[in-house]
Amino acid sequence: MDSQESQLAKYRKRHNKEYLKRKADAAGDIDGEKEAKAAKTTTGATSSGVSASASAAAAAAPAGPSQPTATDLDAFMTDEERRRKRQEEADHALAMQLSGEINIETDRRDERESQIERDEKLARDLFAKWQRADTSRETEKQDSNQQQHAGPSRRAVHIDRDEEWEWVRLVKATDVNRYDTEEVMTRGRQILDKEGDKAVIKEQLTQLAVEMGCLTGKWLIKFAPDQIAEAFDRVCEAMRQGMLGSAAKRSLEPKDNLHVICVYTRDFRDKGDVHRVLNALRAKGLAPLVGKEQPSNYISPSKSVTYKTDLYTIVGIYMGNPWQLPPTIYQSNSGEFRKYT
């Protein structure tokens, strides 16, 4: 583009020079014509003759410069300028072709890189899936070995921790409840906020627990810091012996200088099973007898223990709750749970 403008400027300059030269030549011709006519005519020549001659001279004068065409431009170029122009045009065409090819190759490279990223992600996902499958198979193998080593009258357990609790669970538990905790809490709070009769509220909460499958509950037993390790060892042993339910846990930090152990049952409505687990705890010296002297292996400072549903825990029914509901539903010293055999 810059080359064409430069060539155009050169052309205009050359063209203007020729125009001025032709104009000067025309002016000389006019002057010669005037002198010849002056010699041939008399002094009394009319002004009309002079005007006619002037008009003819004006008509003979060349027109002003016009916008040159590409053909005009080529006509005033030297051979070297034409050669350079053709070379520039060829170079420009080649550059445009190369630019298009580069863009196509860039698009292809981007597509290859995207495909590589997709393939790598797929490979990572498959590898993670295989790892999980291998881990699951290894865990099942270990659980099977533990169950075999436990013997026909003992059960394998698994012990782990979270931020607040140390848990012991049966390896192959079949009585685990599954429910939506958030929905249980939301609907439970709606029942509590009605502020109706307490007996009606308790019945509605029970119906919600049945509907949502939130049926688990636990005996709550408190121990001093120097008793908690021994107490939890007894709970683990009782689970291995098949005396308890499928899970239990102990607090990692004391509250009011006391730890708590929670021993779960599968269904708070099954009072027979709830009573059975309580008596197993009594046999291990972890829950108190009622109306009798405590055995020599008894280590809990509590005179009675209480039972609380998981639904009550989820909706926040604790001691001193704003709904003035009792936080537990059973007590070990009540009439229906006093008996120990």
From TrEMBL:
<comment type="similarity">
    <text>Belongs to the UPF0696 family.</text>
</comment>
<feature type="compositionally biased region" description="Low complexity">
    <location>
        <begin position="39"/>
        <end position="71"/>
    </location>
</feature>
<feature type="compositionally biased region" description="Basic and acidic residues">
    <location>
        <begin position="132"/>
        <end position="143"/>
    </location>
</feature>
<dbReference type="InterPro" id="IPR015034">
    <property type="entry name" value="Bles03"/>
</dbReference>
<feature type="region of interest" description="Disordered">
    <location>
        <begin position="132"/>
        <end position="157"/>
    </location>
</feature>
<dbReference type="InterPro" id="IPR023398">
    <property type="entry name" value="TIF_eIF4e-like"/>
</dbReference>
<feature type="compositionally biased region" description="Basic and acidic residues">
    <location>
        <begin position="105"/>
        <end position="120"/>
    </location>
</feature>
<feature type="compositionally biased region" description="Basic and acidic residues">
    <location>
        <begin position="79"/>
        <end position="92"/>
    </location>
</feature>
<feature type="region of interest" description="Disordered">
    <location>
        <begin position="1"/>
        <end position="120"/>
    </location>
</feature>
<protein>
    <submittedName>
        <fullName>Uncharacterized protein</fullName>
    </submittedName>
</protein>
<feature type="compositionally biased region" description="Basic and acidic residues">
    <location>
        <begin position="17"/>
        <end position="38"/>
    </location>
</feature>
<dbReference type="Pfam" id="PF08939">
    <property type="entry name" value="Bles03"/>
</dbReference>
